[in-house]
């Protein structure tokens, strides 16, 4: 579960699944886990599946779209290429922010 406030101050709670597998045609376990999280925790505003896989199957995409409609919230899949791009784009900023000393009060 990841929580944050967007630039407008609106709180968000995201159910996240991280997977290192390649999808079989009928493999929907990450979707089932997102659904279970949404049933178990209040206030979830979206679901995200991060995967090192190169692609998701069309069967998985159909199941993802169905779950998204059923839950009434976005369920997004981020695959390897986009995941790498996001790390390259944002990781240096995060590391730099962590390295900055805390201000003296």
Count of individual beta strands: 4
Helix content: 40-55%
Outline the biggest β-sheet.
Answer: 4 strands, mixed
Strand sequence of the main sheet, in spatial order?
1-2-3-4
Q: What overall form do the CA principal axes indicate?
A: globular
Q: Find the structural class using helix and strand composition.
A: alpha/beta
What does the radius of gyration come to?
A: 16 Å
**Low-confidence residue ranges:** none
Mean pLDDT reading: 88
Order of helices and strands: EEHEHEH
Strand content: 15-25%
Tally of helical segments:
3
N-C termini distance: 32 Å
Q: How would you explain this protein's 3D organization?
A:
The chain has 105 residues and is an alpha/beta fold. 44% of the residues lie in helices and 22% in strands. The chain has helices spanning 29-40, 58-71, 80-99; strands at 2-5, 11-19, 46-51, 75-78. Strands 1-2-3-4 form a four-stranded mixed sheet. β2 (11-19), α1 (29-40) and β3 form a beta-alpha-beta unit. The longest helix has 20 residues, at 80-99. The chain starts with a strand and ends in a 6-residue tail after the last helix.
């Amino acid at each position: 579960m990841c929580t944050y406030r967007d630039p407008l101050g609106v709180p968000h709670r995201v159910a996240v699944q991280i997977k290192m597998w390649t999808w079989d045609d009928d493999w929907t376990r990450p979707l089932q886990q997102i659904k279970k999280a949404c049933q178990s925790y209040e206030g979830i505003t979206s679901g995200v599946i991060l995967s090192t896989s190169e692609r998701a199957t069309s069967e998985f995409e159909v199941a993802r779209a169905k779950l998204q409609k059923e839950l009434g919230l976005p369920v997004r899949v981020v695959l390897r290429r986009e995941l790498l791009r996001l790390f390259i784009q944002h990781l240096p900023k995060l590391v730099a922010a962590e390295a900055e000393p805390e201000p003296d009060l």
